[in-house]
Design goal:
With 210 residues, the protein is α/β, with parallel strands linked by helices. Helix content is 18%, strand content 19%. The protein has a seven-stranded mixed sheet. The protein has a four-stranded parallel sheet with strand order 2-4-7-10, with no helix packed on it. The chain has a three-stranded parallel sheet with strand order 6-9-12, with no helix packed on it.
Length: 210
């Protein structure tokens, strides 16, 4: 029996049998037309379950034009959240006051540019991090706690700070290319779990043989 069950809402069970109700697989607890979420991606928060989408992306509404796209096996810590384009104010004039949001017929500032926010597979977003509108975070990246991500993050980069900058790359460029080509996150879960030792130790040669 696999360790992971993609159909669970609450995937963490403590050794004493307690099921954690603060860590959840997002795909199974969110029904939002502007969010696309992959299997096994989780988020931890203390709010009400029905408020999960709003806690994760407080300015992404059903009528928004942009999307929040989250890949598989993404890990989002408590306090992290996404600013999305619908939270922007008009900045081209004298005032930034969002007058139009107070009338249904003008709500949404449809003339403002929007861009999807994308989190690729196996990204770890640390406690209290903020991801700004339109950012793409590449696969395997790590976002340090309390960081503010204002621009795209390359795959397998470790970023931190405000604004977040690259602290280091997790692997050399040629190795990153090999890992991305491997795309282990698309393997069947049984195959992933059969190769956990190699995944956790970074044994790329063993993973290529799998």
């Amino acid at each position: 029996m696999p360790l992971l069950d993609a159909n669970l809402a609450f995937p963490v069970t403590h050794p004493d049998g307690r099921v954690s109700k603060t860590t959840m697989y997002l795909k199974n607890v969110i029904d939002h037309p502007r969010m696309e979420i992959g299997d096994y991606s989780y988020f931890t928060h203390y709010g009400r379950l029905e408020d999960t989408a709003e806690i994760l992306a407080p300015y992404l509404w059903p009528e928004s034009r942009e999307k929040l796209v989250i890949g598989k096996f993404v890990q989002i810590a408590r306090g992290a959240y996404f600013m999305t384009s619908s939270g922007n104010h008009p900045m081209g004039g004298i005032t930034t006051y969002p007058f139009r949001i107070f009338k249904p017929e003008t709500f949404g500032y449809k003339d403002l540019p929007v861009k999807d926010t994308v989190v690729e597979h196996d990204v770890w977003i640390g406690h209290g991090a903020v991801v700004m509108p339109g950012v793409t975070i590449g696969a395997g990246a790590i976002v340090a706690a309390a960081s503010v991500v204002t621009r795209d993050v390359p795959p397998y980069a470790v970023v931190g700070g405000n604004p977040a900058g690259i602290i280091r790359m997790r692997y050399p460029v040629e190795v990153i290319g090999e890992i991305l080509a491997l795309a282990w996150w698309d393997w069947p879960i049984d195959k992933i779990e059969a190769n956990l030792a190699a995944l956790e130790s970074g044994d790329l040669a063993a993973l290529k043989r799998a």
